């Protein structure tokens, strides 16, 4: 089992079958951001197995060094997840996770590896645009945390717990650095459908910046707006899961057909 995935996320009598939704976390976040999604998507007939991706340096991998260069992270993900990605799958990424998901799909396309059936990306600017600035250069941990809380990325109550902030802020800083090191995007669009989401009150990503992803979509691009701001997936999780289920259910039948084909 690759260290990026947990046994729990792949367990069950049909663990080798069906459409898998690999979920990449936002900056400062971890796999636990998606802990409620399996139940929520099952209730909406999404037809997917939710597979959160566990990045190093956080949660259950806290003692491992974090990546600070996107190219190194994506190369490791590609190697470690290669056998898992032989199964039908869709990538989902929110904010930083969108950048990771796209970069991984692009790398796999370049080397002729199996691609996701679709990319579902939310709350990030197209990769050829500058990364958004969360806080001023040289901002203290308290200032950065306050900005993350204002955006909805962390609960405001956490600001009163300095020990927790001392553990969280290095993760957030390394992740924000990671977003500036994608190493370019190449010229060839990824040859899978894209489904893009953005909050109508997002202060980091405008609708035109989201629409710019069309330059990277080789098989069409759908764009939807959601209520809320940058972290609408937290504040409006139920509404978003309903929309996400509508997307993934389109690919579930395709995955079932692929599983039924003789090997």
Description:
The chain has nine helices and six strands; from the N terminus they run H-E-H-E-H-E-H-E-H-H-E-H-E-H-H. The chain has 263 residues and is an alpha/beta fold. It has a six-stranded parallel sheet. Helix 3 crosses helix 4 (96-110). It starts with 6 loop residues before the first helix and ends with a helix. The mean pLDDT is 90.
Major sheet strand order: 2-1-3-4-5-6
Computed CA radius of gyration, to the nearest angstrom: 18 Å
Low-confidence stretches: none
How many distinct beta strands? 6
Please tell me the overall pLDDT.
90
Shape: globular
Largest sheet: 6 strands, parallel
Distance between the termini: 22 Å
Order of helices and strands: HEHEHEHEHHEHEHH
In helices, the fraction of residues equals 25-40%
Strand content: 5-15%
């Amino acid at each position: 089992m690759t260290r990026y995935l947990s046994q729990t996320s792949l367990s069950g009598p049909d663990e080798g079958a069906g459409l898998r939704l690999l979920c990449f976390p936002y900056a400062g976040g971890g796999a636990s951001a998606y802990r409620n999604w399996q139940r929520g998507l099952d209730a909406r007939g999404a037809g997917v197995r939710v597979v959160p991706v566990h990045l190093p340096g956080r949660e259950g991998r806290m003692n491992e060094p974090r990546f600070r260069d996107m190219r190194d992270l994506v190369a490791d993900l590609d190697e470690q997840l290669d056998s898992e990605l032989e199964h039908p799958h869709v990538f989902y990424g929110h904010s930083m996770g969108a950048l990771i998901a796209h970069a991984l799909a692009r790398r796999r396309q370049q080397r002729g590896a199996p691609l996701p059936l679709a990319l579902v990306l939310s709350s990030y600017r197209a990769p050829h645009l500058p990364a958004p600035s969360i806080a001023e250069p040289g901002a203290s941990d308290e200032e950065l945390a306050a900005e993350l809380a204002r955006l909805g990325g962390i609960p405001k109550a956490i600001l009163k717990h300095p020990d927790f902030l001392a553990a969280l802020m290095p993760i957030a800083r390394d992740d924000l650095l990671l977003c500036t090191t994608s190493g370019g995007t190449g010229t060839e669009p990824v040859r899978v459908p894209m489904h893009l989401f953005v909050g109508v009150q997002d202060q980091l990503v405008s609708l035109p910046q989201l629409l710019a992803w069309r330059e990277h979509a080789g098989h069409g691009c759908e764009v939807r707006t959601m209520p809320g701001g940058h972290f609408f997936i937290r504040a409006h999780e139920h509404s978003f899961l309903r929309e996400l289920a509508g997307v993934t259910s389109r690919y579930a039948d395709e995955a079932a057909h692929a599983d039924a084909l003789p090997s």
